[in-house]
Amino acid sequence: MKIERLSSQHKQAACQFLMNHPYSSMFLLSNIEKAGLESTGEPFSGEYWGAFDEAGELTGILAQFWNGNLMTQAPDPIALEALTSHLLQTVERPVAGLVGESEQADYVLSKLNLPADAYNTNRCEGLYQLVLNDLQLPINALSDRFKLIGSSEADSSLLFDWLKEYELEAFGRAPSDAHDEHILNRVAQMQKSDSSWVLLDRDQPVSLSGFNATLPEIVQVGPVWTPPEHRNNGYARVIVALTLQAAQQRGVQKSVLFTDNPAAAKAYEAIGFKQNGSFHLALLKEPIELTATASV
Where does the UniProt annotation place the signal sequence (predicted)? Predict the structure, then answer.
């Protein structure tokens, strides 16, 4: 097994390999599409390492992105072990977290050997898939009372409040000036993109949904947020269904999302999603240098 730093010359091979496992590779595929394989420090860029077998075939990928998060796609246990060992011996930047297919993520996290209290969140979520031809629109989704507006049209302060509440609830973050700055940056990025929307019910904003990773044929749903005062009205299933219907009209064929929230899972299943796998989300309270804590 040979470990090699990936570069632009590997893009075709990397994408072909990842498309064999698209539903658990959306962040990797989307980031490569946006920023290539070169690490520039800009959003979505990262350092990529590939595991190659004796025949020179790519059998696994591990990446560390601009924000310090690790991501992996290495179904072959030998490739995953080799990539993890290489990471622990060569990593130069602090690690902020890890996301990926659950069994792979569990292995990497066991080798990072970080204390349990280092994490804001460290959990396994259900991975849900939907072929958009099977999308089931809620009965009231096409009612005149509902309207979708792009995040660029939405009030910035509303997006700030909703995204802040979303991250505090979903990721166990603590309020801070640094987190507020992070949310401001997220709002700015969201309003520049065309991949997030607000649902209006009789002109009142009630729910938010977006795509956090996109390919021409697949989109990954997230974040989805309905403020507590608007919950239990079916807004999440309406906005997710409407945004996926619009994506299908643009030629998107499939969708994926992950959640560990039973109420959210019920809403997604109601519009056609089915669980097929699991996804691990581990985010640290603060980035950590691995040299003194990790074990090979």
Answer: none
